[in-house]
Design a protein that fits this description.
This protein is of the alpha/beta class and 539 residues long.
C-alpha cells in the first residue's frame, strides 16, 4: 500500500474492447499493428468532425468534461476571426499518483491518440501538433510513434509535431501550465485565466484535450456514430477508461462501457466486499459512502447525481479498518505540497486546510472543524488554476462522506482506527517514473545523482536553500551560488523534495553516469509502416 502505480499496470476490459483493441496481441501497437487492428482512417471536414463529436456527446476525459464539439467549433471560429492557424495539443500529463489510463494508452496505443489529433489538425488546417507528457516511458513511446509516421518538428514540414515533456507535478497537467511550457516558460499556471480556444500556444487559438479524448474521437470516426452509440448509455455512449487502485488486490486500468455498476468494477479489482468509502475522480474528486457505492454506475452524470465525480477516471476504495480522515489528511498534505506557490488561496489556503484536518484528528473539536470548512470555502474560485478548487472539493467531500468518523474525532476520542495509507502517493524519497532521467540508483556506494539549476527559470525564491542547505546557499543577489552539484546519498530524499517544491520548476535531478558502462536501453527500432495516404496510414 501507499506505493505509486507503475506506468503500465494490469489492463482489463469489460465487454468488447475499443480503445484497448489489440492489447491481447502485443504490448505496444506500432504503426503496422495499429493499422492491422484498427484499419486506416479517412480525414473528415471540420463541420463533419464537430457533428460527429456532438452526435456521440463526446466530452473531455481529463476531468473537466467540456463538450469536445463545442470546443472544436470555438477554436475554429477564433482562428477564422483572427486569421491565424490553430494549434492542436494532446495533454498526456497524467500527474496524479492514482491515475494511469492516459499513460497506458500512450504507452500501448499511441497511434490511436495520434489518429484523433491528426483528424483535428487536418480538419482545422493546423500546422503544429504538440503532445505533452511527464514520464520517460510516455515520451519515448510517443516520439517513436511520431517517427513511425514520418512526423517531425523540422521547419518546412506540413505539420510540425513534437513531444513536450514536463516535470511530474499536479499543476503541470493544467492546460495553462502545458501551454506555458510549450511557449518556453515554466510548467505552472500563468497567474491569470486565459481561454486556450482564444489565445493558447504562441497566442494562437489552441484545441487542447487529453489523450483518451482524442483516442475516443478516432474510434468514433472509424466506426461511425450509430455503431459507437451501440455501446454504453444513450446519453453517454461508448466506453470509459478507469484506473482502480487503493484497497484492491489487483490495481488496474480497465475499459468499461458506461452504465456498468461501480461495484462490479471494484469486484474485478479485488476491492473489499463492503468498502468504507470509495474516492471517485481522483484527488480532485469526491468520496462516496458505502451505501451509495452500491447504487452508483459508471457515468459522468450518474456519479454526479449520487454525489461522486468521474473526473480523471480514478477509483479508490478504502477498507473498514483504516481511518478515513487520516487517509484524506495524507492526500490533503500532498495536494498542499503540489501548489505552484503563485497565489494566496493555493499557497496559503491548502496548507491551512491540511493543518485543520490534522487539528481535527488531534482533538481540536468543533472549532477545528469549523476552521476547515471556512478555509475550504475561502479558496474556491479564487486561484490562478483549478488546483485549489479541486483540492477544496476533495476536503469538503471528506467531511460530508464520513460523518460518523468525523463525529468520533470532533466530539469524542477519535475512531480508534490506524491510518493504513491505502491511497497511493509520491512520498519523499520515492521517485515517480520520469523525474530521473537515468537508470535506478545503486543500493550501495557513492551517490550518482546531480542536481541542476536552470537559470532561464530560476526566479530567486530561495526555497532550495531552505530545503537543501547541504547543497545550496544563496549569494548576495538571492540566487543559488552553484549551477550544479552532486547530491550526497544522505540527502537524496531532500533533494527530490526540493525539485518538486521549487515554485519555478527550475531544479532537476539527473544521473551522473561517468565511469559507468550501464545505460538505459533505447526503444527497439520499430518498422516503418506504409499504406494508404489516410490519416492512420503513416507517411
Amino acid at each position: 500500500m501507499n506505493e505509486a502505480l507503475p506506468d503500465v499496470p494490469e489492463v482489463r476490459v469489460v465487454g468488447l474492447p475499443q480503445l484497448t483493441s489489440g492489447f491481447d496481441l502485443v504490448e505496444r501497437l506500432d504503426l503496422p499493428m495499429h493499422l492491422k487492428v484498427h484499419g486506416p482512417l479517412e480525414p473528415l471536414g471540420g463541420e463533419d468532425l464537430a457533428s460527429l463529436a456532438e452526435d456521440i456527446n463526446l466530452k473531455g476525459r481529463g476531468g473537466a468534461g467540456f463538450p469536445f464539439g463545442k470546443k472544436l467549433r470555438s477554436v475554429a471560429e477564433s482562428a477564422i476571426k483572427k486569421g491565424i492557424r490553430p494549434v492542436v495539443v494532446v495533454n498526456g500529463s497524467e500527474d496524479e499518483p492514482a491515475c494511469r489510463k492516459d499513460t497506458v494508452l500512450i504507452n500501448r496505443a499511441p497511434h490511436l491518440i495520434l489518429d484523433g489529433a491528426l483528424l483535428v489538425a487536418e480538419a482545422m488546417g493546423a500546422r503544429q501538433l504538440v503532445i505533452g507528457v511527464t514520464r520517460e516511458s510516455t515520451q519515448r513511446s510517443m516520439e517513436a510513434a511520431l517517427e513511425e509516421r514520418g512526423l517531425s518538428n523540422r521547419r518546412g514540414s506540413p505539420l510540425r509535431a513534437r513531444v513536450q515533456r514536463n516535470p511530474i507535478r499536479m499543476v503541470t497537467g493544467a492546460a495553462a501550465s502545458l501551454i506555458r511550457s510549450i511557449d518556453g516558460g515554466p510548467a505552472v499556471p500563468p497567474g491569470r485565466k486565459v481561454s486556450a480556444s482564444q489565445a493558447g500556444v504562441g497566442g494562437a487559438p489552441t484545441l487542447l484535450s487529453n489523450a483518451e479524448t482524442f483516442a475516443q474521437l478516432a474510434i468514433a470516426a472509424r466506426i461511425g456514430p450509430d455503431r459507437y452509440r451501440n455501446t454504453g448509455l444513450y446519453d453517454e455512449p461508448g466506453t470509459v477508461m478507469l484506473t482502480v487502485s487503493g484497497a484492491v488486490s489487483r490495481p488496474m486500468v480497465i475499459e468499461v462501457p458506461t452504465g456498468v455498476p461501480l461495484r462490479y468494477v471494484l469486484q474485478l479489482a479485488g476491492a473489499p466486499a463492503m468498502p468504507q468509502g470509495v474516492l471517485t475522480g481522483g484527488y480532485h474528486g469526491k468520496w462516496l459512502d458505502a451505501a451509495t457505492v452500491n447504487e452508483a454506475i459508471v457515468s459522468r452524470d450518474s456519479l454526479a447525481a449520487v454525489g461522486g465525480a468521474l473526473g480523471a477516471g480514478a477509483i479508490l476504495p478504502i477498507t473498514q479498518e483504516t481511518c478515513p480522515l487520516g487517509e484524506s489528511l495524507r492526500v490533503a498534505q500532498w495536494l498542499a505540497d503540489e501548489s505552484a506557490g503563485q497565489c494566496g488561496p493555493c499557497y496559503l489556503g491548502l496548507p491551512a486546510a491540511a493543518r485543520g484536518l490534522a487539528d481535527i484528528l488531534n482533538g481540536g473539536g468543533p472549532a477545528a472543524l469549523e476552521a476547515v470548512k471556512q478555509v475550504a470555502k475561502s479558496v474556491k474560485r479564487r486561484g490562478a488554476c483549478s488546483h485549489p478548487d479541486g483540492s477544496a472539493m476533495f476536503i469538503e467531500s471528506t467531511l460530508k462522506a464520513f460523518t460518523d468518523d468525523l463525529a468520533a474525532h470532533v466530539l469524542g476520542n477519535g475512531c480508534g482506527r490506524p491510518v493504513e495509507g491505502v491511497l497511493p502517493l509520491f512520498e519523499d524519497g520515492q521517485v515517480p517514473m520520469g523525474i530521473l532521467s537515468g537508470p535506478g540508483q545503486p543500493e550501495t556506494g557513492s551517490s550518482r545523482q546531480k542536481i541542476f539549476v536552470d537559470w532561464t527559470l530560476c526566479r530567486g525564491h530561495g526555497l532550495c536553500a531552505d530545503l537543501l542547505p547541504e547543497v545550496f546557499e544563496l549569494g548576495a543577489d538571492g540566487f543559488p551560488t552553484v549551477a550544479q552539484a552532486p547530491v550526497p546519498r544522505s540527502v537524496e530524499a531532500k533533494a527530490l523534495r526540493a525539485v518538486r517544491r521549487c515554485p519555478a520548476l527550475a531544479l532537476r535531478i539527473e544521473e551522473d553516469t561517468r565511469g559507468s558502462s550501464s545505460s538505459r536501453p533505447n526503444l527497439p527500432v520499430l518498422s516503418q509502416g506504409r499504406g494508404r495516404r489516410a490519416l492512420g496510414s503513416g507517411r
